[in-house]
Structure formats: structure tokens, C-alpha cells
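Recall that a protein's primary structure is simply its ordered list of amino acids. Everything else, from secondary elements to tertiary packing, is in principle encoded there. The following example makes that idea concrete.
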Amino acid sequence: MANLYKKPVVVVNPTTGAKIKTKSKKWWGKYRDATGTIRRVPLVGDKTSAQTMLNELVRKVDREKAGLIDPTDEQRKRPLAKHLTEFTKNLKNKGVTPKQVKESTTQIQKMVDDRKWKMIGDITASGALEFLGQLRRDNLSAQTYNHYLKSAKQFTRWLMRDRRTPHDPLAHISKLNVSTDRRHDRRALAPEEFARLIIAAQKGPPIETLPGADRAMMYVLAAWTGFRKGEIGSLTQRSFRLDG
């Protein structure tokens, strides 16, 4: 049952500083949407106008239940940038690491900017494939192609599941077979190769402000411990036992 009400608020008397309980100037509307969820929305100060607005919301719910309108219509009218902002918040709320959030959203934003997508309806599989194809023409690896595709599909899948669009436009796009792209095969360095790497680092110029000698020591530490760059960067003096 839909109804109007004034929301309880607390205001401060500017003269005495006393807190006073009162009612909001605007009327609020309470109703159930098409999924049965209770919604509370701010309306206007005039009661007659507020009732008219609430009645329209109820009629819209009735039309949606009857299948006369698409519940995603309103969402599809919003700028894509706002959806991406909310998607970013969703990733953070799910506990995705800041590094992963930044990587995924940066890749999505690059695709969106390149294809000039402004609204959800602008997203197309052909546009995404054109962008991904350009990555390959620029000689980026199949693995990089797949990373971009994974991020984009994660976004469009979320749009559909969150009832922001009736379908996922990228659902049918498949990843590339990375086994056919051998550029990034990994293997352990042979002892003589590792020795050459250390010598080259020691003699080399600073990279990312890190002197060659320090970089060589980092390679040695990584080889002995198996630590990655980020793990090594987090080490402090307290990380070591120097008494044994």
C-alpha cells in the first residue's frame, strides 16, 4: 500500500543551539516496486502534487508488472560514466583489491573512450571486437587481449544482472587461445643467463629511480626467495632476522 508521510528530522536552533525534532518540509512517498521491495522517495512540499507524483510511481509499477514497460528503460537513459562509477564501487564493496579494481576499470575506460560509448545502448560486440582487434594489430599479446575482454565482459554482465540492461551485448565474445601466442612462455633462467642479467643490471642506468646495483640485488633476492616485485617492495628492516 502506497502512502505519503513527513520524514522526522532534527534541526538546531541557531540562537540557543538546542536540537528540535520536527518534520521534513517535503512529503515522502512509500511504495513497493515491481520486485516487492519497499521504496521511500522524496517528493515535493505541496501535498496534492506529492500525491500525484506518488500515484504516477504506483501506475508505473503496475505497468511494469503487466509487462508493458521494460524495467531497465530508466537505467538505459543514464550516462555510461555513472554506471561505470557504480560498477567500480560494487567491485570495492565485494572486496576486490585496489590494484585489480584500477586495472579492470582502466581497461574498460580505454575501450569506452576509444569507441566513444556514452550510453549503455552504444555498447556493441562489433565495437568491442574492433577495439580488441586493434590491440592485436598493435602487436599486443593474446593474453592482453583476453585481459581487456574479461574486464569489459565483467562490466556488461553486471549491467544485465543489476537490471540496468535487458541483455549482455558482449556475452558471446570468446577469448583467444593463448597457446598459439608463444611470446610470453615462462621458464627458469639458466645459471649463465641469470649471471648475465645481474651483470647487466649492475652496469645499467637507473630504471624507475632504482640504481643498477640495487636492481641487481633485488633480482638476487627474488631468485632466492621467490618473492615478486610488490612483495620485495613491501620489505622493511623488521622483515629480516639479523641475529641468526
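The chain has a mean pLDDT of 90. Residues 101 and 109 are 12 Å apart (CA to CA).
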